[in-house]
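Handout, page 2. Input:
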Amino acid sequence: MKTIHFYLDFISPYAWLAFDALPQTLQGISCRVAHKPVVFGAMLMHHGQLGPAEIPAKRDWTYRQVQWQARAQGTPLQLPASHPFSSLGLLRLATACDAAGEPNRWVCEKIFRHVWCSGLEAADAPRLAALTADLAPPKDPTSADVKQALKRNTDEALALNLFGVPSFVVDGQVFWGNDALPMLRAYLLGDPWFLSAEWSAAGQLPVGIQRKV
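Output:
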C-alpha cells in the first residue's frame, strides 16, 4: 500500500479545496494518507516568494477563484473575516493531536472548517481556545515538543524542494495544488505517462534568461 504525504497549511484555501476533494480522487485506490502540517510562510521565505494573498491583484483573483472552485466542486467555503492571518496556533494544535505530528483526517477537517466555513476570524484567541478544548489534544500545542515537530515537518518539506501547499508526495514524486489531483489519481492508477520522457525530462529544460530582482 502506497503512502501519500499531504503537506498542508490551514491558511491556504487551495489546501481546503484539495482536502475536501481528496476522498473522491482516491476512490477505489488502496493507500494511506499522512497529513503533514507545515508553515507555508517559511516555505515562501525559503524560496524568496510572496504568497498569493500578498500580491494585491493576485489576492483579489485568488478569493474569487477559490469561491468559484468551491461552488463547482460542491465544497462549502466562506472567506474568513480577514486573510492572510497567523496560522501557527492552528498548525500547532493539529500537530499536538498526534504523537508523530501527523493529525488524522477528522482533526484536519475540524480545523479547516474552523477557518473556511465560518466567516469569522480564524486566529481569534477565544475561538482557538474553544477549538482546542473540542479537539482535546494529548500534547500541549504550545510545548517545545510540538513546536519542534512542526518545524521538523516544515524542514522535511523544504528538503523535498516543496514550494507551496497543498503538496502531495508519493514515491518521491511531487504533485502540487488542488488542480493536480487528477494527475495524482492517474499516477496511483499506474498511468505509463509518468514513465515517459515528457515527465522525466521536464526538469532538464535549460533556462533561457533570468530576471534580476
